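Re: beginner question about structure tokens

> Can someone show what the tokenized structure looks like for a real chain? I only ever see the sequence side.

Sure, here's an example I had lying around. Input first:
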Amino acid sequence: MPTTAPSPAITHPPTTQAAAPTAELSLEERMAFINAAMTVRLEEAAVAHEVNTAHISTEPVDLADVVTVPLTPTLQPPTPYPTPVAALLQRAHHRLLTGGWCAGALVDAEGARCLYGAIHAEARGDQNLESRGLEVLMDAIRRQFGEVDSVPSFNDGFAGGRIPMRMLDQAADLADACGL
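And the corresponding structure tokens:
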């Protein structure tokens, strides 16, 4: 009788799944299990994200610096403030919006103006109104930026006009709130 070699034993890897429950789970029970599993995964992902980004320094973002509106030459001036200083600052702000902002000069070659140049032009020779407008603007600037030497030095400290023009708008609001 010929001898045959024994056949190798076939082994199956052990399964990691638990035996099926004898009773079927309800939809609510399955949803509760899935919710618990997802909560654990999301918490682990949140911790991993914090660990992976802990070395990145961040500064808070001022939405006024991010949200911008396209400017057009046909931009209509807003309803003027009833008080003279607030109306002056509002007109100066509108002049910068439509005519352009510049740094380093009262008026540049294209006709753009700095903060002081816009207030000076809109005061139309009224020295008292101009000086009161500059005082309110300095007050608004100092409230947000601390000690600043002058309106021209503040204006020239920026490469773009977004923040100086925003301060002019805030100064108009401040003057109106103070009844100036």
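Each token stands for a local structural state, so reading them left to right follows the chain. Residues 28 and 34 are 10 Å apart (CA to CA).
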